[in-house]
Amino acid sequence: MHVSRTTRLLTLLQVLRGKKRPVTAAVLAAELEVSERTLYRDIAELSALGAPIHGEAGIGYVLRSGLFLPPLMLNADETEAIVLGLRYVDQRGDEVLSQAAADALAKIAAVLDPASQEALRNPTLLPGPSGYGYPQNTVPLNVFRQAIRSQAKLQIDYSDAAQTSSQRLIWPLALGFLNEARVIVAWCELRGAYRTFRTDRIAAAAEHGERYPGRRSDWLREWRKLMEQQNESAPFTPDKN
């Protein structure tokens, strides 16, 4: 019975994670094939354990964002996948991302069961040798991250592969980490098209004081679709014009 209840609780969490909008107790109970009384009890138990579940009468339940990884939540394969990703970030990220990866790994380690702890201490997956030696950036990556998060237009001084300098007003969408360089994906007002810029070739960057229109996710989705249509073998190609 204990295993059955644990499985049911974890399944309920997974179902809530997959819901983008609040869902009623009746719908959840039907999906999990339990009574509404059982569902209310499970919701209360998960909330007591720290799951950020929000419920409102007449609207339903929604799982808010936030870290909630109770014991048994990750098996050995899932643990190693997360550790591999975080160690990859530690190798290729800047100081901010490296520290964030270390903090995230510490939080995850604190809630793993004994079997997963062993996978954490002695992983079978390794990220490969470090020391790729990214070119030095003049502008800290955090400047780009903040602009991306706030959808702020950026005025940049950029030099292409031929050392031709230009000033660009860009709409930053995402940062890409390649083995040999870091690039920023953006809409370029000068070119009227999507472009990618190597961050080490950006001599200066400042927020323009305006937010670009629409949603960043929509612009990024359109860029990905364009890349697929062009059958690009590599998604990031630094701007050459």
Automatic annotation (TrEMBL):
<dbReference type="GO" id="GO:0003677">
    <property type="term" value="F:DNA binding"/>
</dbReference>
<dbReference type="InterPro" id="IPR051534">
    <property type="entry name" value="CBASS_pafABC_assoc_protein"/>
</dbReference>
<protein>
    <submittedName>
        <fullName>Predicted DNA-binding transcriptional regulator YafY, contains an HTH and WYL domains</fullName>
    </submittedName>
</protein>
<dbReference type="InterPro" id="IPR013196">
    <property type="entry name" value="HTH_11"/>
</dbReference>
<dbReference type="InterPro" id="IPR036390">
    <property type="entry name" value="WH_DNA-bd_sf"/>
</dbReference>
<dbReference type="Pfam" id="PF08279">
    <property type="entry name" value="HTH_11"/>
</dbReference>
<feature type="domain" description="WYL">
    <location>
        <begin position="141"/>
        <end position="205"/>
    </location>
</feature>
<dbReference type="InterPro" id="IPR026881">
    <property type="entry name" value="WYL_dom"/>
</dbReference>
<feature type="domain" description="Helix-turn-helix type 11">
    <location>
        <begin position="8"/>
        <end position="61"/>
    </location>
</feature>
<keyword id="KW-0238">DNA-binding</keyword>
<dbReference type="InterPro" id="IPR036388">
    <property type="entry name" value="WH-like_DNA-bd_sf"/>
</dbReference>
<dbReference type="Pfam" id="PF13280">
    <property type="entry name" value="WYL"/>
</dbReference>
